Amino acid sequence: MSEIAKIELGGTTYEFPVIEGTENEKAIDISNLRAATGYVTLDTGYKNTGATTSAITFLDGEEGILKYRGYPIEELAEKATFIEVAYLLIYGNLPTVTELETFRSNITKHTLVHEDMKQFFEAYPAKAHPMGVLSSMVCSLSTFYPESLDPNRSPEAKDLTILRLLAKLPTLAAWAYKNSTRHPFMYPKNEFDYCKNFLYMMFAMPTEEFKVDPVVVDALNKLFILHADHEQNCSTSTVRIVGSSQANLYASISAGISALWGPLHGGANQEVIEMLEKIHADGGDVDKWVLKAKDKEDSFRLMGFGHRVYKNFDPRAKIIKKACDDILTKLGVNDPLLAIAKKLEQVALEDEYFKARNLYPNVDFYSGIIYKALGIPTEMFTVMFAIGRLPGWIAQWKEMTENKEPIGRPRQIYTGVVLRQYVPIEKR
Ligand code: CMC
To answer: For ligand 1, atom 41, which residue shows the shortest CA distance?
Structure first.
């Protein structure tokens, strides 16, 4: 017999169904709560609220498990390409050889952005943060494809928007960087694969032959896979909630990019490197900074530590830490920040404060050190995260529209003044 949850209010007992996912996660379905009882639930920050059912990504925070469409992240990061993983997330299964070839070649057909968009870049100051530029540019894409404004068009039309986004995001991201250096924009080279093409547009110069170490391409591929989806996190929930109003996909993804930018979310990777640099410049006294992080009077937090869901370890961080050692060794990079990061991790993991709160390094703790070794400038770190997360955002948006989910619209408990009378300005 299926489980029932009972809530007693004012002497009456109400029953609510319990639903169970394929990984045995349980939820009390309270969708009928207000209609039945007049009450709503209160859960600031949605710490205990399941906003949807989803068949895309499974995450077990206690056990440190992450799977995309049933495939463990460890296996995908080791064996797959980012484009394969993007296909898997968006369409539900790993592609066959033909499906992958078609997907890849369709993406390369759309890597150019409209020439008029170049003028937008030129109007930004050189110091503009690339996440601000990227979010605006992605929303601007909707103005070039007015037919995309109706997200309920045919599946073929949806797929075209999806391909355009996957194809153009690296171009827009690389151009945001080129603009900040006032260097000429490099047009995409479609003979290169997704990651290599991005590195080409970032680092190539028209006057020089472009060479890139395959270690760098592989590292980027791995990092993008690790970022590709993470179920109902802040930016993904943003994409779903914006999309639920039937705003177009470009607008929804642009909103996701803005949500990702915050230092508590994807922006943490930039903050981690800046923190490590500060500790290094300050003499490298790790204990002093751990003390600061524990001090409730001090706003400093150990960036790259802690996670809303992972309370044991972040499986992405485990893979990234190992990759960090391997990549730096292969590239012959000796970064003093890596030693500080390892010391910081060691001290924090042995500290009662961090142990009691289950605070462990998250995906952002070591990823910045890898991005730095790959030559990616610090302000571009969160942009890298956004490129990696794009297939996940798209998959979640697609699932939401296909399931015909209603508009996202939480309730609140009002705590303001009950009633006041308007007083004319001269009498206030
Ligand atoms: N340094 C010091 N104390 C911390 C930290 C930290 N990084 N993270 C959490 N705490 C403490 C916090 O002060 C609180 O202590 P107390 O119980 O005494 O009040 C306790 O741990 C619980 O923290 P919380 O802020 O209530 O937890 P949350 O689930 O709301 O926040 C978090 C999760 C990731 C926002 C938070 O851990 C944090 O700010 N970490 C640093 C930023 C960061 O690395 N963000 C990237 C997250 S992973 C990438 C992604 O997917 O976005």
So the answer is: 303
Q: If you search the block for the tokens 């007049």, which residue do you land on?
A: 38
Distance 305 CA to ligand 1 centre (A): 7
Task: Encode burial over 256-265: b for 16+ CB neighbours within 10 A, e otherwise.
Answer: bbbbbbebeb
Nearest-5° Cα angle at 90, 188 to 387: 40
**CB contact set of 19 (below 8 Å; sequence gap of 6+):** 26, 27, 29, 53
C-alpha 362 to ligand 1 mean position (Å): 10
| 369-422: pLDDT as tens digits | 999 999 999 999 999 999 999 999 999 999 999 999 999 999 999 999 999 999
For 241-290, what is each residue's pLDDT tens digit?
999 999 999 999 999 999 999 999 999 999 999 999 999 999 999 999 99
d(CA 273, CA 372): 9
- C-alpha span between 102 and 105 (Å, rounded): 5
Secondary structure (DSSP) of 364-415: HHHHHHHHHHTT--GGGHHHHHHHHHHHHHHHHHHHHHHTTPPPP-------
Domains detected in the chain: 4-65 (2.20.28), 69-265+388-402 (1.10.580.10), 268-373 (1.10.230.10)
| Helix residue ranges, H only, 147-248 | 155-181, 194-203, 214-227, 234-244
CA angle (121, 123, 126) in 5-degree steps: 75
Q: Is 265 a catalytic residue?
A: no
Establish whether 364 is a catalytic residue: yes
- CA-closest candidate to residue 139, choices 118, 177, 165: 165
